[in-house]
Amino acid sequence: MTTGTATRLAGPPAAEAVIATASAQAAGLPTPPHLVIVRVGDDPASVSYVRGKAKKAGEAGLRSTVHALPEATPQADLLALVATLNADPDVHGILVQLPLPAHIAEEPVLEAIDPDKDVDGLHPVNVGRLWSGRPALAPCTPAGIMAMLAHYGVAVAGRRVVIVGRSRLVGRPLAGLMLAADATVTVAHSRTRDLAAITRSADILVAAVGRAHLITPDMVAPGAVVIDVGINRVVGEDGKSHLTGDVHPHVAAVASALTPVPGGVGPMTVAQLMANTVQAAERQRSGALGELLR
Ligand SMILES: NC(=O)C1=CN([C@@H]2O[C@H](COP(=O)(O)OP(=O)(O)OC[C@H]3O[C@@H](n4cnc5c(N)ncnc54)[C@H](OP(=O)(O)O)[C@@H]3O)[C@@H](O)[C@H]2O)C=CC1
Ligand SMILES: Nc1nc(=O)c2c([nH]1)NC[C@@H]1CN(c3ccc(C(=O)N[C@@H](CCC(=O)O)C(=O)O)cc3)C=[N+]21
């Protein structure tokens, strides 16, 4: 961000607040919640994200284990690992990092995860709970965005929210959470006509597309709150590779508030994973207590 007047909605302070709450809850459990992350192959971005998540888990007082499987792992072996983790009472959260190699279908893998250990909130049971307005483990990026808005005092109820992007991981579940929070929601995507007219109607505009600087100032209503989810690796004028979002920097001159990239939504995603892992551990504990008392 160069010039502009928009308030910078920084991720790290809001993320620390989420992690502090999760850590305090974790400390009240008989054993530290245990997160298991499964990564298949050596995609450099996935390697780096998974490392970041495991590091944060340790800082938050959680246990974490990373299973790094070779690129050529057969789907059956991955399913067998998930079954073992489901059955292990010492494992509270399971996350299979996406994308998976092309020879492995996502659907059967996500459906194999015990919904109560599904800290990514991608199992159809959790998707269904979210869309029927019941408590559920919600995907980390959308839940992190809701936590960030709450942290900075941005009201959602009654406001017009436009989400650009309809992915399983971000756009769709965010629409469900926004609806549950009483926003009026529009979801745009690659087939949307006259995208600018729609984005200009937003009080809160969320860009989750994966195209550098797709959202330009003319697409933003003066005073709108803009959430930039995109993480794009681009080569700058200096010839160096760096990260940039889906939102053009000049949007800062139009918006009232804007999340930076990096240092915006990304840290919220990681923080929310810690919160979801603690929530999963608590759910399993109360589930187990319920069984004992029955
Ligand atoms: N900060 C964080 O924590 C996270 C960041 N990300 C980043 O967010 C971005 C989006 O991720 P993800 O949702 O997984 O991406 P996907 O590629 O799964 O989805 C992209 C969405 O954008 C839509 N789209 C593509 N081109 C256009 C266009 N020109 N106009 C309008 N809509 C368009 C697609 O439409 P259609 O459905 O029609 O194809 C699709 O719905 C990426 O940069 C990713 O790296 C992702 C997860 C977490
Ligand atoms: N099953 C699954 N669950 C996910 O939640 C999931 C996934 N698969 N696949 C990929 C996306 C992407 N994602 C990010 C996590 C952290 C940052 C993050 O920490 N970003 C930092 C900087 C990152 C950097 O410097 O490279 C930031 O924006 O400041 C970004 C993106 C989770 N995802």
Automatic annotation (TrEMBL):
GO terms for molecular function: methenyltetrahydrofolate cyclohydrolase activity; methylenetetrahydrofolate dehydrogenase (NADP+) activity. Keywords: Amino-acid biosynthesis, Histidine biosynthesis, Hydrolase, Methionine biosynthesis, Multifunctional enzyme, NADP, One-carbon metabolism, Oxidoreductase, Purine biosynthesis. The keyword Hydrolase applies. Its EC number is 1.5.1.5, 3.5.4.9. Pfam families: THF_DHG_CYH, THF_DHG_CYH_C. PROSITE patterns: THF_DHG_CYH_1 (PS00766), THF_DHG_CYH_2 (PS00767). InterPro entries: Aminoacid_DH-like_N_sf, NAD(P)-bd_dom_sf, THF_DH/CycHdrlase, THF_DH/CycHdrlase_cat_dom, THF_DH/CycHdrlase_CS, THF_DH/CycHdrlase_NAD-bd_dom. The keyword Hydrolase applies. Residues 22-120 form the Tetrahydrofolate dehydrogenase/cyclohydrolase catalytic domain. Pathway: One-carbon metabolism; tetrahydrofolate interconversion. One of its GO terms (cellular component) is cytosol. NADP(+) binds at residues 165-167, 231. CDD domains: NAD_bind_m-THF_DH_Cyclohyd (cd01080). SUPFAM superfamilies: Aminoacid dehydrogenase-like, N-terminal domain (SSF53223), NAD(P)-binding Rossmann-fold domains (SSF51735). Residues 139-284 form the Tetrahydrofolate dehydrogenase/cyclohydrolase NAD(P)-binding domain. Belongs to the tetrahydrofolate dehydrogenase/cyclohydrolase family. Catalyzes the oxidation of 5,10-methylenetetrahydrofolate to 5,10-methenyltetrahydrofolate and then the hydrolysis of 5,10-methenyltetrahydrofolate to 10-formyltetrahydrofolate. Homodimer. This is Bifunctional protein FolD. The gene is folD.
